[in-house]
């Protein structure tokens, strides 16, 4: 089968199309023919992880060394990128009961990756579900990562109807789903992003949008029940005055300082709380979002598609910060 393979860290030029062995499903696995796989934050990170300095690492410093070792110190251990996909089940292992050949699925592979290939094997108990019936493979493939991260993290903050919520990083993979889900939960949503993506975030249903290049949301006098910062570009000391007395500061990316603030706000019984959390990867998040998509309550957006042969070009497009929505690699139907 064809796959996009990289054997050294670096620029998009390290991504090469190659012939590799087609995988065979184990007894508990499904073999999926991949039709679409988006490029997200994790792909760019993994492609260049060997050149990432500890200060550029978006998570607590003690996780840098184990992460670097698990990615591969000098060269990548995982050589095929792609953490989400949509495709068709071609074959199933003998113990599989949940799926059958011909099922149209969408899936999240997490940091195991491997979706930038014509075929991938997934355990039937993995983060895989039937795709929304009203979406193309291309659009459905853009949902799993955001769906899992946003449902899980917003759930940890116990988002409720009537709350005033601010999403810092509203135009990205996690934020664009978080805006839509927060609206579905009945919250009033303000989305923060860069100038080129203001209209995109408004189109997702945000009640208000703020351009972070022109306005500092911590200085406008507004207060929120929940501030969800995706990249962790704000800080608790700065957002404190923008939180309501019982407000929650939720972080998808966090360093040691934020972890200590979480501990402090928890043990001191502070009404304002800091929550730093990792998302739980469950197929239930996919089923939940599938239902909302089929009811027309959530949409998937594709900014640009590239054929598999142009994967390096697609990485360059994403890296230059040009995308408005998702960038997807499409494979032959
Ligand atoms: N906790 C977990 O379980 C978990 C899981 C996966 C990933 N993560 C973390 O999530 C992050 C990636 O999220 P993603 O995939 O949504 O990233 P993404 O698609 O790259 O989106 C990043 C967002 O941040 C915005 N942004 C950039 N600079 C900003 C600034 N100075 N102020 C405010 N917003 C800014 C971008 O806006 P514009 O593009 O409009 O400029 C965009 O909306 C990573 O840090 C990763 O470590 C956490």
Low-confidence stretches: none
Distance between the termini: 14 Å
Total DSSP helices: 10
- Helix-strand string: EEEHHEEEEHHEHEHEEHEHEHEHE
Number of strands: 15
Q: What form results from the Cα inertia axes?
A: globular
Provide mean pLDDT, rounded. Answer: 96
Structural class: alpha/beta
The hetero molecules present are:
NADP nicotinamide-adenine-dinucleotide phosphate
Share of β-strand residues: 25-35%
Summarize the structure in words:
The chain has 333 residues and is of the alpha/beta class. Helices cover 26% and strands 26% of the residues. It has 10 helices and 15 strands. Strands 3, 4, 5, 6, 7, 14 and 15 form a 7-stranded mixed β-sheet that branches. A 6-stranded parallel β-sheet has the order 10-9-8-11-12-13.
Please sum up the structure shown.
Helix content is 26%, strand content 26%. It is α/β, with parallel strands linked by helices and 333 residues long.
Features:
binds NADP nicotinamide-adenine-dinucleotide phosphate, single chain, alpha/beta
Helix-strand layout with pairing:
Blueprint lengths: L1 E4 L10 E4 L9 E10 L2 H7 L16 H8 L12 E9 L11 E5 L10 E5 L3 E4 L6 H4 L3 H13 L7 E5 L4 H12 L3 E6 L4 H6 L4 E4 L12 E6 L6 H4 L3 E9 L4 H12 L5 E4 L6 H12 L7 E6 L3 H9 L6 E5 L3
Parallel strand pairs: 8-9, 8-11, 9-10, 11-12, 12-13, 14-15
Antiparallel strand pairs: 1-2, 3-4, 3-6, 3-15, 4-5, 5-7
Helix pairs in contact: 4-5, 4-9
